[in-house]
Amino acid sequence: MFTSLIKSKITLLSLSGLALIAIWYSWRFIPGTAYRDDLGEIHGTGTIEYFYGSGRVRASEQYVNGQLRASEYYKPDGSLVAVSHWRGGTGVEYYLREDGSIQRIIPCKNGIAEGIAIDMPIDQPAREIVYRAGTPVE
Fold first, then answer.
1. Where are the alpha helices (DSSP H) in the chain?
2. Contact by Cβ (8 Å): 107, 114
3. What DSSP character marks residue 28?
4. d(CA 50, CA 28)
5. For residues 52 and 74, what is the distance between their CA atoms, to the nearest angstrom?
6. Residues facing residue 31 across a β-bridge
7. How far apart are CA 111 and CA 98, in angstroms?
8. Exposure on the CB side of residue 113, measured as CA atoms within 13 A
9. In degrees to the nearest 10, what's the CA dihedral of 13, 19, 23, 26?
10. Global confidence as pTM
11. Cα separation of 125 and 37, whole Å?
């Protein structure tokens, strides 16, 4: 009886240890673990939000294991402006003014601006800006 009690405790401790190792190894995939480190890199899985001066959500980014999967952009009244789905750092980024209007639309590849962006200045016609490796080429 005493031997079987010790064996069951050892088994329980072993299983608990394996569970802790599995959690430690896969924490980056657990929802709610997304955070930005001191260098600005995103780690974990979850949502990172950006806000207007009023405190309302301007943009919401969903990450899985530190990889951006989707971005949603909102007006100050909460209405949706745009959604961008990302794959391998490739997607479209939107920059909004404080009133929720679109200021700039930038295509990205591998997380860096690349391609023809659209700049929409106030009281001026929209213009194209070509980006190469994150730098505007005019």
1. 2-26
2. yes
3. G
4. 21
5. 10
6. 45
7. 24
8. 17
9. 140
10. 0.77
11. 39
25 φ, ψ to 5°? -70, -35
* CB contact at 8 A, 94 and 105: yes
Place of tokens 């997607």: 91
Nearest to 61 by CA among 98, 28, 36, 97: 36
The DSSP code for 90 is: B
In whole angstroms, give the CA distance from residue 26 to residue 34: 13
Rounded to the nearest 5 percent, the helix, strand and coil shares of the chain are 20, 50, 30
Each residue's pLDDT tens digit, 96-109: 999 999 999 999 99
Residue type, 65: N
Contact predicate 34/43, CB 8 Å:
yes
> What digits encode the pLDDT tens for the residues 51-91?
999 999 999 999 999 999 999 999 999 999 999 999 999 99
At which residue do the structure tokens 């088994």 appear?
11
User: At 104, which amino acid appears?
Assistant: R
Name residue 129's beta-bridge partners: 117
Q: Which two tokens stand for residue 50?
A: 């950006």
Q: How confident is the model at residue 30 (pLDDT cuts 50, 70, 90)?
A: confident
